[in-house]
């Protein structure tokens, strides 16, 4: 990249868009006008220099349009590519370089937009396709005779990266099966110390017997919540979220703890996690049986796609 400051400006723009916690085009347009980002091309450059500048600018922004960046950052990068493509001063217009290996990710991203009913984002994407803004290539960058040692890969902003789903990595089918075997062994051990060998004493019932089934249900609800999180948010959603946090905590506690024990959450939830860690400590112990676990997938949609208002900045959804 021969033009310093491009990456910093783009990251600043995407950081402001990320702070809106929205993927609406209106939010992007507000930031675009506030930063007067269309003037980025008004540097008094000659034609050849302007062409190189536009290509470098597209190459920087297109990185944020691809994984592993978050869904919101990718939408913001797509909006930014759309605005920059329409406001560039090059004639003919410089195109956005997309490697063939990345096209599958872009098509999947488009399907996610359609599924989540982000109609404004779908409209902008289809406008880019209609204007033939993408230039499909074999490699992300132009190959030349530079030595490999002189090509330094640039690191993206870590704040824009998509957070890894640690819950799905931690609680897998094998983990649930192992927890079930450990719980079965735990139940047998309690029976051994009880007066009635057929069932454990009630004083030893510190966790619910259907703990594994409830844990599986919570994981499925979490996956569903992740899908719904990609849907557009409204002010009503934010108000409902604030009032339902306490009820959600009590609901989770009722799944895990015995009846009547989840009234005092501060004490018994702590005891639950201690017990869970203690149970997982039996990982190296001998477990009996090979029980199998059965098979463990937006609001503000709007009725019509309305193009954002046109302005002198040249980023109307009509490509003005």
From TrEMBL:
Region Disordered, as annotated, extends over 301-320
UniProt keywords (A-Z) are: Membrane, Transmembrane, Transmembrane helix
Any single GO CC term annotated in Swiss-Prot or TrEMBL for this entry: snRNA-activating protein complex
Q: Which GO terms describe its molecular function?
A: sequence-specific DNA binding
Q: Which domain of life is it from?
A: Eukaryota
GO terms classed as biological process: snRNA transcription by RNA polymerase II; snRNA transcription by RNA polymerase III
Q: Does the keyword Transcription apply?
A: no
Q: Which residues cross the membrane?
A: 265-282
Entry-linked InterPro entries: SNAPC1
Name this polypeptide is given: Small nuclear RNA activating complex polypeptide 1
Q: Which organism is it from?
A: Engystomops pustulosus (Tungara frog)
